[in-house]
Design brief:
Layout (H helix, E strand, L loop, with lengths): L2 H13 L22 E2 L34 E2 L12 E3 L8 E4 L8 E5 L8 E8 L2 E7 L5 E5 L3 E3 L3 H5 L2 H16 L2 H7 L6 E4 L7 E3 L1 H4 L9 E5 L6 E4 L5 H9 L3 E5 L21 E7 L11 E10 L2 E11 L3
Parallel strand pairs: 10-17
Antiparallel strand pairs: 1-14, 2-6, 3-9, 4-5, 6-7, 7-8, 10-11, 12-13, 14-15, 15-16, 16-17
Helix pairs in contact: 3-4
Length: about 325
Amino acid sequence: MHRTPLILTLLALIVSACAAQPVVPTTPSPLPSQTATSIPATSTPLISASLTPPASPTTTSTPTSTSVPQVAATATSIPPVTSIYNPYAVVRVLPDDVLNIRAAAGVGNRLVGTLQPTASGVMRTGASATADGDLWVEVQNPSGGTGWVNADFLTESVSSASFCTDSRVLSLIQSLQTAMLKADDDLLASLVSPVHGMDVRLWRYGTVANYSPEEAAWVFQSEYQVSWGAAPGTGDETLGTFSAQPLPKLKEVLSSTYSLHCNDALDLALFSLQPWPPEYANINFYTLYKPGSEPYGGLDWRAWTVGVEYVQGQPKLFALIHYQWEP
């Protein structure tokens, strides 16, 4: 090993130590079960939302074993995580990927372990830092000791049984109904997860439009044209605003006598091989199902799956995915 390059590297790190600290995002949190209750009906502005699918955690690349110095992370003032919000679970990691655990905050640091896409029971130590513009948190490493992961790929872990018996989730769905039918942007913004935002998919395998609470606050008025992907059965690209495309289909279900089914995608698998995306495996959901009518042979049914994550113990909207009959 040559000492001169190492000394120069250390001097460069010292000079860069005064770099501006990035903004620290907030931390994630619990959801109800299979019921067949119905919610009666009650009586739309969007900022340019993030229109890309959930970002890859870029965790599969293994750093080289050369003497790369640890990437400096900025300590945050976030208080230690109390046991009430533990454990956590992996989220938004695709089935063929893993979430890397690193020796320190930042993708440039040494790999010390991995978490599988469906891993749960992840325990945080309470320590957090910012690096690469992201929030990183320290966790217990299944291989022993501790390590650091990008907090964007963790969510508060809640069992299906706890979720399906949580009356607050039913209240959340009722508030969603009110927000959509009345185009109440302030109400909708208050429901959206401040950690991961709300993923909206007009078509199961189409574009994922992600709305932060701030973006949801004017989604009903937005004139932004989203390319929602190819419509099932026709292959035609669907282009339009939130109010022109997802909203009418949401209203159709929410203004009907729909049934609620906790963590049950019903027979939607007939129209999608994986109705609930595998990268959402640790997110609980309700299916809101409007049955078809006799004049149309029942083929005019429509459904939405509503994903919910917990943020500091409070249920928040995580995802909305639409389904309809496909020829």
